[in-house]
Amino acid sequence: MIRALLLAASLLALEKNGIEFRVDGGPETIDLARSVLLTVTATYPSDVKVVMPDIGARARGFSLAEEFPASSRTAGDGRTVETVRCKLVPKPYAEEYKIAPFLVKASPRLLSSQLDDGRLSFVAGPIRFSGPPPLESVADGIEICPEKDPPPFDWTRAGFALSAFFAVCLALLALFAGVRYLARRVKEHLMSPIERAWVELERLLDKGLPGRGMYKDFYVELTMVVRRYIQRKYAIRAPHMTTEEFLRECGSMEGGVCDTAALGRFLESADMVKFAGVKATPEMADDATDSARSYLTGDSGEAAK
């Protein structure tokens, strides 16, 4: 005979053939903010074996959050008390919340037992829960554009955005510098040899190499200004010749190069600093600059005649 007992903390209580089965827990009214913890207890004689049902698999309107290991003990009267627990999470706005009917399977432990296996097993359930109360209606109408709290400030994203900003700025600066350099090179390429020589000389003087003690570098670049000018104007491979070869090539040209003697004195004095280890002074650097200017002015003047 099956009896149903309605207790304050009990959702289901059954007894059949000496097997007591109960399900405790709650709450009976679903609260979407709370989980439902169920405790399933079976108490049965020692000569009977009971397989505890899988309550989580029979849950409707719930998700199984956690299932605890079964525990077993022996009561004072010699009967076995077996308990399993599970935690269920209600699904929002499910059609129903219940534990569908399930089978409590019991069988005798000894093959020689006179108990009938089918007579020991029984069906229990269902267990129903009351759904959550309906939401309160909005009296003042629907809020079309609700105000939202701004998300918390993320320093990681801010650092990434700042790094990306500086990377883009550096790329734009590099692009601008490259375009500017290319435009300058194209402009200089279209200049006449003497115009280009004056531009290169002014660029060299803007570096201020003598003021930083870099006299050797200054003399190397100063002589290259003059040699490149002669190469462009007279088609002499001046930058790749020694001073003697260069002066000999200039002297063998038809008509000659303007003031070859002054050019030789300028190049030979520069070689003393570049190769002979002579220590230059600011006055010597100024004199070398004046010599280069005088040669370029004189040569361009001869060409104009």
Description:
- The chain is of the alpha+beta class.
- It has two domains: 10-129, Immunoglobulin-like; 169-304, no CATH class.
- Helix content is 40%, strand content 23%.
- It has seven helices and eleven strands.
- The strands form three sheets. It has a five-stranded antiparallel beta sheet with strand order 1-2-3-7-6, with no helix packed on it. It has a three-stranded antiparallel beta sheet with strand order 4-9-10. It has a three-stranded antiparallel beta sheet with strand order 5-8-11, with no helix packed on it.
- A hairpin with a 2-residue loop joins strand 1 and strand 2 (19-26).
- 17% of the residues are buried.
- The model is unreliable at 1-8 (pLDDT under 50).
Features:
Immunoglobulin-like, five-stranded antiparallel β-sheet, disordered N terminus
Give the overall pLDDT as a whole number: 80
Oligomer: single chain
Largest sheet: 5 strands, antiparallel
H/E series, N to C? Answer: EEEEEEEEEHEEHHHHHH
Can you summarize this structure?
The chain is an alpha+beta fold. The protein folds into two domains: 120 residues, Immunoglobulin-like; 136 residues, no CATH class.
Which helices and strands, and how do they pair?
Layout: E1 10-16, E2 19-26, E3 36-44, E4 48-51, E5 59-60, E6 62-74, E7 80-90, E8 97-99, E9 102-108, H1 117-120, E10 122-124, E11 127-129, H2 155-189, H3 193-207, H4 215-234, H5 243-251, H6 260-274, H7 282-304
Antiparallel strand pairs: 1-2, 2-3, 3-7, 4-9, 5-8, 6-7, 8-11, 9-10
